[in-house]
Amino acid sequence: MRQSSQEGHLGGIEAFVLVSMFIAVKLFLHIPRELSWAAGTASWMVPLIALVGVVPVFLCIERLANRFGRASLLSIAGLLWGRYVQWFLGLLLTVMLVIHTAYQMRIFAEFTITTLLPNTPISVVIISIALLGLFLAFNGLENLSRSAWLLFPLAITVFILSLFLAGSQGHIYYLSPWLGYGGIAIIETGFRFVGLFKEIMILMLIAPLFRNQKTFRQVGVASLLFTGLIFTLVQIVLHLNFDFPGAREIGFPLYQLARLINLQFVVQRVEPFMVFAWSTVTAVGLAVGLYASAIAATQGSRAPDFRPFLIPLTLLTVVVAFFPESSIEAVHTYTYLMMLLPILFYGLPVITWIWVMIFHRSSEELK
Question: Where are the transmembrane segments (predicted)?
Fold first, then answer.
């Protein structure tokens, strides 16, 4: 099943960049602070433990894609359970993706007006972000992935260099006690935050765009490992520079880390460069979120093209972004969504794989 009559195939490197950016958007919001609240000085272990929890889910996605010729998960659901179930699951995924993207958009807009544009109405910022995401997503994932790949080398270079400079000014003793609240507590917290990688679900929607199964598998594994490493580095650098009470009170941790960098007469202010890095990643990640919601609606309804869904879903995303009355409410709701959305995003491929293993032993192919 093709995404539309005009979609092409995804290259491995471009797909890796796109999926990684989609996962990494939350890194530039308040999530590093939430991890510090939950795990203390051992918050850098949380992404690694969460990564272990995501691996079985990705294996289910990969095995399903391999067995059904890289068909999308919604197409597989239609084959197994019928058209009405496919429609319902498509609607459910669409709604969840709209809510997920809308709250990320709102929190990023709050960050923008807090740090960069204090006199700009938040409505202007949200609408501008939505229009940019719509523009990037409208020409399909192939063009979006190529745009992301062109921007990625500079953005990741600035980001890694900034982390290195901020980390070099930290204090290693801020990382103690090394196990935070204790070994059992850190393991429990790690699996509770397994939603850090929930955006890997995009692979079950774009599976038809990969030329072969090997590329599909490599993109999934590389994206998880790369983003897991980045999340871990950010938490380490955060705690190198802020003691535990300070780390859990910072609104937007990466921005505050960038403001700490001061190499005397060489470099004093690098936050404008960091703003470029996280604005690039966020813009691409939000565009992927809009695209994913449109593709879920397309596959659920078995429509031939995702574009008719994209504009109304973008408008709906903007409307939902205005639901929270304050930034605090937006942050609290999004943190709750971090725990809720994995139930659907992880549960659907796992349940489908179990059903296939038990009840679907024939070699039927999707038509």
Answer: 12-31, 37-61, 73-102, 122-141, 148-166, 178-207, 219-238, 273-294, 306-324, 336-359
Under 8 Å between Cβ of 149 and 14: yes
In this structure, are residues 201 and 293 in contact, taking their beta carbons and an 8 Å threshold?
A: no
Closest CA to 133 of 311, 277, 252: 311
Q: Counting every residue, how long is the chain? A: 367
Render the burial of 70-92: b for 16+ CB within 10 Å, e for the rest.
bbbbbbbbbbbeeeeebbebbee
Q: What is the pLDDT of residues 53-65, one digit of tens each?
A: 999 999 999 999 9
Span 83-97, average pLDDT: 95
What tens digit of pLDDT does each residue of 262-314 get?
Answer: 766 556 666 777 777 878 888 999 999 999 999 999 999 999 899 999 999 99
Question: Residue 367: what pLDDT?
Answer: 42
Neighbours of 105 (CB within 10 A): 27
Residue 97: pLDDT band (50, 70, 90) is very high
Helices 141-168 and 12-24 pack at an angle, to 10 degrees, of: 60
Report the C-alpha gap between 260 and 171 in whole angstroms: 13
Walk me through the domains of the chain, giving residue ranges and CATH numbers.
12-352 (1.20.1740.10)
Nearest of 36, 367, 44, 104 to residue 235 by alpha carbon: 44
Residue 300 near residue 94, CB atoms below 8 Å: yes
Name the band, by pLDDT with cuts 50, 70 and 90, for residue 364. very low
User: Cα(74)–Cα(90) distance, rounded to whole angstroms?
Assistant: 7
